[in-house]
Design goal:
Elements (H helix, E strand, L loop, with lengths): L6 H21 L4 H15 L3 H25 L7 H18 L17 H4 L10 H41 L4 H11 L7 H16 L7 H17 L4 H5 L4 H31 L5 H25 L7 E2 L7 H7 L5 E4 L2 E4 L7 H13 L3 H14 L7 H9 L9 H20 L2 H9 L41 H6 L4 E3 L4 H13 L14 H10 L2 H21 L2 H5 L2 H22 L9
Antiparallel strand pairs: 1-2, 2-3, 3-4
Length: 596
């Protein structure tokens, strides 16, 4: 079982096993609610082109990095039998397409690696009677098995085959005949020899690491949080609902931290432990230590090469409320880099995302050597806050959900809006939302509650008002291709000379620049103005934006402005905000009345 010389026998065996497993699961079906939340809900969120596109892209990046690290750590590129490796890859993918079982990362016959499970983590089976379970099986076949699982298995089988192909020759000390026998043995689910088992174990670990499906400290934290939520909520499966995808994102962060340099202390810890246990001469131990060091070396080198092509201004880190308006005007994303007029999420950097982020933090915010080192470490460790589950708790603490002096009615309303938005995001296929954006040239305002479903429906979204920037101008969307293939992870840079000047001042002074947000402002004057003018408030807000932009553009051209210091310019810009508001009040004949 698992031998590429027995393709037909393997297909017959795994097909029979699939039939038996499906029958047994149907006798003990999962509850309909579990299938609805754990399978259908998650499937709807992944049902798009951008999810498999990112999955494939990140697998290519980590795959190249891991393949290179294997060769450097092994001090060689010579394999045992490339034809046998290719035959194995073909067989694994045939078995997967016919049965949904991934045998390249299988450790026992019970470890079936069902379709999509390695990417999604624990999943709920949908065998049994009823329309909901039937829908669940369709979602499993289309989304989990094909969109997400098939590319994942293609990469994992290639990495397993590459690993045993390289390591067999080294383990056989150059004896090609012996190496081929060991390689064939390692491809069996249960190898016949200890050496075959060693090769298989290493191959499975390499395949998992290179497809983000290994069990890391980060994935253990995320899965632990989700497990607690699932156990507390029962069949509602709140963990699957609130944390639908955790294993891959958690492993991306853990692996990225290794590539950013954490692999170095890990290697020294392993070395200390091996010396203490008398295992320093063990080949597997030394290979593990070597791989940690190589990953750090490759990650830092790759990070430096990418960062060298970027200006400080081409990088946006974590969310900063002081810069929120500036970044909105630039149309940037948090954790993104600017490449040829596009803001690209660092998600697309795969294992180099963390080292590039850390290097840019050190470069932008570190003035001395010590400060740069501190900022680099801060950038690496800050990535741990993005681990699924941890990031949700962190965001919740900072969010309005924990605002002081919030009334029960406000808290209830926010909770209802959140729950309703989560419900329609789970029940409407993600690709519909992508198409809705693709056919709409404008970005639409977000709508709270169940009304938010309109943003997900093509053409119906156009009935919502267009979203406007602080200058009162409608925000243009991305191209249809970009919306469908990349979603919000790729956005067009919209920096103008005006925005560039404001951004430069903010960067140079280290101070934020924010204009009055008429939707969120706590100004008593604006509150009274809104109370008096009612529906005219939105038009007044647009007038303010246009006036503010006109003032800034005209005044910045004057010689007096150019002679100012950076701090004076910043103060001048802030004053234009007050002038623009006073202008609107004058146009609407509004006089603020203080309460006695």
């Amino acid at each position: 079982i698992g031998s590429p010389s027995k393709v037909k026998e393997n297909l017959d065996f795994w097909s029979a096993k699939k039939e038996m497993d499906d029958y047994l699961q149907a006798q003990v079906p999962s509850s309909r609610l579990k299938v609805l939340t754990g399978t259908i809900g998650r499937g709807m969120m992944l049902f798009s082109a951008k999810s498999p596109v990112l999955n494939i892209g990140s697998n290519v990046e980590i795959g190249l990095a891991e393949a290179l690290s294997r060769r450097i750590a092994n001090f060689g590129i010579r394999g045992t039998d490339s034809k046998l490796a290719q035959d194995y890859v073909k067989m694994v993918n045939k078995v997967y397409q016919k049965t949904g079982y991934d045998i390249s990362r299988m450790t026992t016959l019970r470890d079936t690696g069902a379709a999509g499970e390695r990417v999604l983590g624990q999943i709920v089976h949908s065998q049994g009677k009823g329309a909901i379970r039937k829908t669940g099986r369709a979602i499993e076949d289309v989304v989990f098995k094909q969109l997400m699982g098939a590319p994942d298995v293609a990469f994992s089988s290639a990495h397993f085959a590459d690993s045993v192909n390289l390591n067999a020759m080294k383990l056989a000390k150059g004896d090609k005949i012996l190496a081929r026998k060991m390689m064939e043995d390692s491809m069996r689910i249960v190898p016949n020899t200890p050496r075959g088992q060693i090769l298989r174990d290493q191959g499975v670990m390499d395949a998992m690491k290179a497809t983000w499906t290994d069990t890391s400290w980060a994935s253990k934290i995320s899965e632990g949080i989700r497990k607690i939520l699932n156990e507390v909520s029962g069949d509602v499966r709140a963990g699957d609902y609130l944390l639908p995808f955790i294993k891959t994102p958690a492993n991306v962060i853990a692996t990225g931290m290794d590539y950013a340099g954490i692999g170095i202390p890990k290697a020294f810890f392993k070395m200390y432990k091996s010396i203490k246990l008398g295992e320093l001469g063990n080949k597997q131990v030394m290979q593990s230590i070597s791989r940690d060091l190589v990953r750090s070396g490759l990650g830092i080198t790759g990070g430096v090469l990418i960062a060298s092509q970027l200006k400080d201004d081409d990088f946006v880190g974590a969310y900063n409320p002081q810069r929120a308006q500036i970044e909105q005007l630039r149309n940037s994303n948090t954790n993104s880099i600017r490449v040829k007029g596009k803001w690209i999420s660092t998600d697309w950097l795969g294992p180099l995302a963390v080292p590039v982020t850390a290097i840019m933090y050190a470069r932008k915010y570190g003035k001395t050597g010590g400060e740069r080192t501190f900022q680099y470490g801060k950038g690496v460790l800050a990535s741990a806050l993005q681990i699924p589950g941890v990031s949700d708790i962190y965001d919740a603490v900072k969010s309005n959900a924990f605002k002081q002096n919030q009334s029960l009615e406000e808290m209830t309303g926010e909770a209802a809006n959140y729950v309703s938005s989560q419900i329609y995001s789970r029940l409407i296929p993600s690709f519909l939302s992508d198409i809705s954006k693709a056919v709409d040239p404008k970005v639409r305002q977000s709508v709270k509650g169940i009304e938010g479903i309109k943003t997900k429906i093509p053409f119906l979204s156009k009935t919502l008002p267009a979203k406007k920037d602080i200058f009162g101008e409608e925000i243009e969307g991305e191209s249809a291709i970009s919306d469908i293939l990349f979603g919000s992870r790729v956005k067009t840079d919209k920096e103008t000379p005006l925005i560039k000047e404001i951004n430069k001042l903010s960067q140079d002074t280290g101070k934020g620049v924010s204009f009055t947000d008429w939707n969120k402002s706590s100004s008593k004057k604006l509150a009274q103005f809104k109370e008096q003018k009612g529906e005219a408030y939105d038009k007044a807000k647009e007038m303010y934006g246009r006036k503010l932009k006109s003032l800034l553009e005209n005044e910045m051209k004057k010689s007096n402005y150019k002679k100012m210091s950076d701090d004076e310019k910043l103060e001048f810009i802030r004053n234009q905000d007050t002038i623009a508001i006073d202008y609107v009040f004058k146009q609407y004949h509004f006089n603020y009345k203080t309460k006695e």
